[in-house]
Amino acid sequence: MFDTFLKGKTAVVTGSNSGIGLGVATELARAGCNVVLNSFTDRDEDHALAAALGKEHGVSARYIRADMSKGEDCRALIEQAGACDILVNNAGIQHVAPIPDFPVDKWDAIIAINLTSAFHTTAAALPVMRKAGWGRVVNIASAHGLTASPFKSAYVAAKHGVVGLTKVTALETAEEPITCNAICPGYVLTPLVEAQIPDTMKEYKMTREEVVRNVLLTRQPSKQFATVEEIGGTTVFLCSNAAAQITGTTISVDGGWTAL
To answer: How many whole angstroms separate alpha carbon 36 and alpha carbon 232?
Structure first.
């Protein structure tokens, strides 16, 4: 059902040369979408990654460098994409520190990349979607868009902002064939998270299983990571015709975290 409906649509996914973004782009390509990958680097391997993804799924795939901390880059990404039926705002960074010690430059960067970039890309994409007569905006928020944790002031503020922006975008497009929703993942098993596990094992003198259950997933009742494929599959569903009347809401993929 999804393959036929999405075939030939163009999806722009920010922050997508690894992790959740790449997982989302892969599932959209599997569903027949042409995809635009993005990050702030401009390496041969970035372009090779896009080429390989396109070849594997028989779609057009390319990589466009854009620094999501800069509004002009965010808007230029949509312009350079040429088409944008689906926009997935995924780019994000993190820093952990108590509020009095939180570096101002880190605060500014997290707000810019995690929240303000979504405003700029959405502002540039909506006229394109309106001209095409159809569109989907999917914002990758977080469980921290619905709840909070200490020492993550900038990240929590940004992700709450993403949820708010999602609702406003949905209301402004409510009478059009355009929807906007947010996915709120809990802990997702990405290469970045996987790389943190050995050091955490040493720090706490725990086994891998103990670190996963008792440290990383302490707030995730399922005691299982979400996968990038699951986040990608949820995105594909939100872009499908079956989700045409789902707009302005959040979908939690967090193993029950926000049910507590």
So the answer is: 15
